[in-house]
Design a protein that fits this description.
Blueprint (H helix, E strand, L loop, with lengths): L1 H44 L2 H44 L10 H10 L7 E9 L3 E11 L5 E11 L4 E8 L1
Antiparallel strand pairs: 1-2, 2-3, 3-4
Helix pairs in contact: 1-2
């Protein structure tokens, strides 16, 4: 949610800077128009082509920077939409009520001595780009019957398949 607001704030700030740049360009063009008439004789006498070339180059530099800024904004926008799509794919892998990762829970239960004693406490995940790390805390009974608190970290691909159990701490 914060990324969403930061992204839109950046677009607004960038848009304001583009508007300011356009206002400056218009001001320069208007002033050049009004200054050109009385200075036309001076320009013709003293190498007017050089002055026109410099003004033209400045205008082209400003336009080039505006185009680069637009391309950068479009790239950020595409990147934001791609990240939102990936986040939607990741969030669909979790149970909505208890917020646990179904495949990780199944993997944990398959490795437990007494899967019926599984009691989910908390699950968190971190996005690593091409995979996610799912960390789950739960209670379960050991073979001796003692209930212990466990934490399991698993590496999961973006489709939800458990690639490997990274750690299992009791």
């Amino acid at each position: 949610m914060i990324d969403f607001f930061l992204y839109h704030a950046e677009i607004i700030i960038t848009s304001v800077s583009v508007v300011i740049a356009l206002v400056l360009i218009i001001a320069v063009l208007v002033s050049c128009y009004y200054l050109y008439t009385p200075m036309a004789d001076f320009i013709k006498k003293h190498g007017g082509q050089k002055i026109q070339d410099k003004m033209s180059m400045t205008f082209h530099k400003i336009m080039r920077k505006l185009l680069q800024e637009k391309r950068r904004r479009d790239h950020l926008k595409a990147k934001y939409h791609q990240k939102a799509k990936e986040n939607k794919n990741i969030s669909s892998q979790f149970d909505a009520q208890d917020i646990f990762h179904e495949n990780v829970n199944n993997e944990i239960k398959s490795r437990m001595h007494n899967p019926d004693s599984y009691d989910h406490i908390r699950t968190v995940c971190s996005d690593k780009g091409d995979h996610i790390i799912v960390s789950t805390r739960f209670r379960g009974k050991k073979a001796s019957g003692k209930v212990v608190l466990n934490t399991v970290q698993a590496k999961v691909d973006l489709e939800g398949n458990v690639l490997k159990i990274i750690s299992w701490k009791s």
